[in-house]
Amino acid sequence: MAEQNKIRKTQFASRMRKETYPLVTCFTEEHSDIIFAEFPGNLKIDLDVAREIVANRLDFTKNTKHYVILDASNVREITPEAKDYMKRPDTGQKNILGIAFIATNPLSTLFANIFIKTQKNFQAKFFSNKVDAFDWIIEQRRKNK
Predict the structure, then answer these.
(1) 7 falls in which pLDDT band (50, 70, 90)?
(2) What is the CA radius of gyration of the chain?
(3) What is the CATH number of the domain that holds 107?
(4) SS3 of residue 93 by DSSP
(5) How far is Cα 68 from Cα 28, in angstroms, rounded to an integer?
(6) Which of 47, 96, 124, 125 is geometrically suited to a Cys-Cys bond with 116, CB 3.0 to 4.6 A?
(7) Residues 108-128: what's their mean pLDDT?
(8) Structural domains of the chain, count
């Protein structure tokens, strides 16, 4: 049984694609349109950082439409310029079909609210754990098909 579990874990890991950039780590299951992203500790987001994060996400997704589950718990500061950049449909929201935020502190909640309180047709929601965030993304994906 232990050997069988080891084989399953290896098969699962081989289907995962992961890219670690300096400011964000992105991973997804092979052929999935759902990406998971997380930031390093104590991240301060200014305009340059926001541009780099978006460029990394678009690189990882090969500039295709996708859903995002983002653990924003490590965001410690965000400048007004970065907020404006992140909430624009042609920059920070580009190609995002829906985003579920995981936020565990007031600043990460503020970051999540940038997206949640933006355009009415932009699907975004705040969660305190990954399971609920994933379930919501799956529901959004089902509704959009």
Answers:
(1) very low
(2) 16
(3) 3.40.50.10600
(4) coil
(5) 10
(6) 124
(7) 79
(8) 1
